[in-house]
Design goal:
Layout: H1 3-25, H2 30-46, E1 62-66, E2 70-76, E3 85-90, E4 93-100, E5 119-126, E6 137-141, E7 144-150
Amino acid sequence: MSTQNSDFPADVAKLLAQFARLSQRFSDQDEIDADMIRLLQQFMGAKRPFHGFSEHVWRPPTDVYETEDAMVVKVEIAGVEKDAFHLEFSRNVLIVRGRRSQKLGISQVSYHRMEIKYGEFEVEFALPLGLDQDRTTAHYRDGFLTITIPKEDTQITRSVSIDIQG
């Protein structure tokens, strides 16, 4: 076995730290940094195939935080109809996909400024172990999708008899 493989997670941690420092100095590159970090996380934890960059898929702003009882993912997807997105787990990765449609009702428009993203979106999160995916709940209100993934019950203990030899 090569020593490179055992050092790989430490190298990735260093890369993630470097990206974090860069994002503080270059706020215009936040999206690029987030994409790079997402790709590194996918490579290390998600075990999903690489699809490459796709300009037509956008990433909604997201908060991920932990409470005493759960991991919570809050995704800002204002203007997306409830039937236009879905959630799925792929091993320890939560995937939120959907589409925000532009409904102007006007045939010709000349934009002076266009900052709202439309079309397909997708965001993925490599989740830690110890979460009970079967008890996940999701609520969509005021443009925010809040997904709560409860922690597994650690109060359950089990007794294992171990044979001691020697």
